[in-house]
# Entry
Amino acid sequence: MSQEQVSPTTIYNLITMKSNPSQRRFAFIIGTIVVLISLLSVPFVRIQLVELQAYQPAIFSTVICFELITAYVIYSQFKINRSPSVLVLVAAYLFSGGMSLVYILTFPRVFAENGLFHAGTQTSVWLYVLSHTGFPLAIALYMMIESKFANVHYSARTAKRLGLYTLIGVVFLIIGLTYITTHFKNQLPIVLSQGKLTPLFIYGLGLPMVFITLLTLIVYYKRTKASTVTSTWLCVAILASMLDVAIILCGGGRFSVGWYVARWNSFVCANIVLAGMIYEFTKMYLSMTELFQQVKDSKDKYKVLLGESQLAERKISEQSDIIERMLESSHEAIIMCDTEGRVIFTNRRVEHFFERPLESGERLSSYCLGMKTSDAAFEEIIDAYFGQAIPPFRKRISRLTSKGETRHYECYVNPISGETEGTLRGHLVGFRDRTEEERIDELKNEFVSIISHEIRTPLSSIVGFIEILATRAVTEEKRAKYIETIHKESLRLSNLINDFLDLQRLDSGRQEFHFQSLDAVLLLREIVEQWQGKDDHEAELHTATERIFIQGDEDRLKQVFHNLISNAIKYSPGATKIDIYVETDNGKVLIKIQDYGLGIPADALDKLFTRFYRVDNSDRRKIGGTGLGLSIVKEIIEAHHGKVVVDTELGKGSIFIVQLIEVDTE
# Structure
């Protein structure tokens, strides 16, 4: 037997549905009316009334229909809870309905003179006895099984099979009893003689039937207290069945007051449970209709709310995606922490800045090990902040990378407030890379130092010699020498200012280039001739051919090569020669300026063409310069779609190679 625990929700099961006081009160009124009618009829039970031949067939037709319908309704409840006790109740009403059917079919002068199935005068009476005895016994069996197997529930498959077995069993029982009372009619004890009940019926059968039914009613009511819908109306049905037999025992023949009242009680017994169930079914249907409407309304509201919720969810999701993309595309490393300093969210910039990922749940102070501020270790400041020892701050920090480079950052920390005033949801920590700013600051300081030196030096010379010429009498030879020095320093100062102006024009994009076809050999020859003998250096030009053409701005290219030749002479103080080569290579013109001087350190090569950069070497510091020349050279050459590279060896000199595009003039 397949079993399961009783479901706590039984509102749709009439067998277990609790009855309310009004239902019990109404059942009590019906029961009282049945009792009063029966008691009031007792003095008049033997009085004969008008013979209504159709009364008994009509009554029993409804009785049979009601009992079979009741059996079906109870079976529908059995399909819900699948309890064995309910199946017994189904069998009771099937038996009562079936016995009522064969009773009316075998009753004399209803369908045949002596009844159908070759019935005798005793057949219908014995069927009546068996029917009215079987019903209370079935109720007693129902109580016993309900008490013993209250928590037993069949599986759906088992319940269906047992329901079929019960129907077949009841049908065969009715057939068997009918067969016995018809085919053995002459052997049956006589309980009806000349239309009157014999003492055997009254004392041997009738009174025991009344006692059994009354005892069943008392026990059933005591056990159930009429607490359910079914038990309430079943008490009335048992009462009506008992009164039916009791009225019969009081006497009265066919069509007497007692006979009519007894048939009335049979009618009440048959339909009262069905009527109660139909009434509850109607109430249940109305409740379910209201519930369905509420569910339908709720469903419509739910659809509206679901649509609004989905729309809001999409908007929130879109906003979250936008915020996340904004955070991911930020140039700052952004970290969100809880109130204890544990990480909740980071963007990818964090790993890019600090060379390792920051895991969710990790303490920020642990991640910041190795970072420094000007006055303390940064992790100590972070711990102090999350410990509420210091307020929100903005600090400059630095760290050493795995490559040995020093990176600089600015860190700011702000609390995130909740919706309620005074509540704290977490903290937002941001890191901004300011390494480039530090480099620019260094360049700016270098620039100021260079400018102060490079401008002050020629100005000092100019002012000094002018003061001498203005206040002293000097020889003509010295005057000429002083004026030459003033002119030289003025040119130096002018060139310095021109470098700054060129740089500004290149930065702003206002530098104009006038491109034309130029003979590179001729251009370099003119420039080299201007540098012959300068600072005791000889410049020699080497060319593969006499004419090599390029497309360029003559003035700007002269500025480039003058700068490079000047540097070659300046940074080869111990040498007396520089070489200039003009070559071609697969559509390119290569112009090389080679010196035999100091050379350039390897660690300076990647910064050589940046502005204000000067190689940090005492020998070169004495030579001077602004650090702008090579940056201007690079920008002019790149504007000509070329490039400039350097090949150098420390202590042996350098070769600056300018690559330009060769053009065909033919």
Remarks:
- The mean pLDDT is 82.
- The radius of gyration is 60 Å.
- The chain has 17 helices and 14 strands.
- Residues 1 and 154 are 6 Å apart (CA to CA).
